[in-house]
Amino acid sequence: MIRSATLLLGSTGRAVLNAIGAIGAVALFAAQTIGQIARPPFYWREFVSACITIGYFSLPVVGLTALFTGGALALQIYAGGARFNAEAVVPSIVAIGMVRELGPVLGGLMVAARVASSIAAEIGTMKVTEQIDALVTLSTNPMKYLTVPRVLAATLTVPVLVLIGDIIGIMGGYLVGTSRLGFNAAAYLQNTADFLEFWDIASGLVKGAVFGFIVALMGCYFGMTSGRGAQGVGAATKAAVVAASVLILAANYILTEAFFTA
Amino acid sequence: MIRLKNVHKAFGNNAVLNGVDLHVPKGESMVIIGGSGTGKSVTLKCILGLVKPDIGTITVADKDIKDGDRDALLSRFGMLFQGGALFDSMPVWQNIAFRLVQSGVSTDEARALAIEKLRRVGLKPDVADRFPAELSGGMQKRVGLARAIAADPEIIFFDEPTTGLDPIMAGVINDLIREIVVEMGATAMTITHDMSSVRAIADRVAMLHDGTIKWTGTVTEMDTTGDPYVHQFINGLSEGPIAAIR
């Protein structure tokens, strides 16, 4: 009995220590990345390439997600609002819901699935095939060459994706609202514009920047710390997506508290 | 040129290097032999600063590698990795000219130099625009060699240069390495367990086992030494001081 309790306490203690160690390692990696951003050299070519890969090529998936989410949101709010004769709030709730929450969160999660996995797999493969060691022997800092351009590109392009996603999501609500729910087109747009405030949009964009930072940081961290072989790279890829997704949801709650409950 | 004194390195409970002492004079081609997992790669990585020794000192040209500008130190080195370690996201010429491009050399000049180095390792200029994944193992080794010599380094490391190659291609790579090292007057360190490489490349040979240098000498001395480790290793015997199952 005492032996079982000791084993349980021991394994719990080890798990807690490992978790604290992992948080510390990620925090240190983040601090090192931020510290390297301002120091030359800056690899512009890698940065532009990362902007295209992370931002431009994520547009279809983020756009489609926003379109369907906006449409479904309009249907749900209409059905819910009908219970207390508040169907007219559909345009404003769709707009506020998209720009404050669903645009950044769903956009962030889609980018996490697409980008964190590909960054972790790419850098992890580079690690196991000694390409990162080769970078060092060629007098190139892997943190500067691989991590900084990707993290900066994601931090700057995800807010743009979120903005585009917001517009497409509102359009999704508009299409459903005018074609299925009987809203007047001009009135729908007017309603959307009237109730939407600048801070609604800006807060979503700030969230997008934070989520972009998280996605690229997790991809780079797990890629750089990948284990050996195909199994190691696979585990790194999975860990990057899971960590990025959980951190996005946690950061979303913290940011929402900070922005809207003060 | 390169001196290791009492270098120790352990990964967790696994002690890989247990006091390596080695001296490689300027212009000499030193080959380190030893079985798999004896610490050969870790030794090279310690010198390059890719792995930090726990104890001991490593000097290059009488300067401790921990002191001074690391990039300046690394600019004196070229390295051929076991698997080539070519950057698969960029074409061959950019791989070869990577250091030059990063140091601000113009694209045209870097490309011309890459093609010149490709010729030196026996590859045609049309290889320059291909990606590493499109090349055979032997061609990848040659491109890796071209990258290692691109900036005319004073010191070149070769990590298992013939692993995975057929005997004819292995012979071609061995001859190329020997020619290039002699032609450049570079100091070379090679790690291998391929005895044909040892005989083709080495001025001197060092036998690494259990994380320490057990023997050093010339190739001729290697064939006549009574050292039981060297005798067992070069003759591929299962009986001897080196356990066959490690």
Automatic annotation (TrEMBL), chain A:
Membrane disposition: Multi-pass membrane protein
Keyword Membrane: yes
Any one Gene Ontology molecular-function term assigned to this protein's record: phospholipid transporter activity
Keyword terms of this UniProt record: Cell inner membrane, Cell membrane, Membrane, Transmembrane, Transmembrane helix, Transport
Compartments in which it is found: Cell inner membrane; Membrane
Top-level taxon of the source organism: Bacteria
Purpose of the protein: Could be part of an ABC transporter complex.
Protein name: Putative phospholipid ABC transporter permease protein MlaE
Native source species: Nereida ignava
Automatic annotation (TrEMBL), chain B:
Catalytic activity, EC: 3.6.3.-
ABC transporter domain ranges (all copies): 2-234
Membrane-spanning residues: none
Keywords annotated in UniProt: ATP-binding, Hydrolase, Nucleotide-binding, Transport
SUPFAM superfamilies reported for this sequence: P-loop containing nucleoside triphosphate hydrolases
Record GO terms (molecular function): ATP binding; ATP hydrolysis activity
Family annotation (SMART domains): AAA (SM00382)
InterPro entries: AAA+_ATPase, ABC_transporter-like_ATP-bd, ABC_transporter-like_CS, P-loop_NTPase
PANTHER family xrefs: INTERMEMBRANE PHOSPHOLIPID TRANSPORT SYSTEM ATP-BINDING PROTEIN MLAF (PTHR43023:SF6), PROTEIN TRIGALACTOSYLDIACYLGLYCEROL 3, CHLOROPLASTIC (PTHR43023)
Protein name: L-cystine import ATP-binding protein TcyN
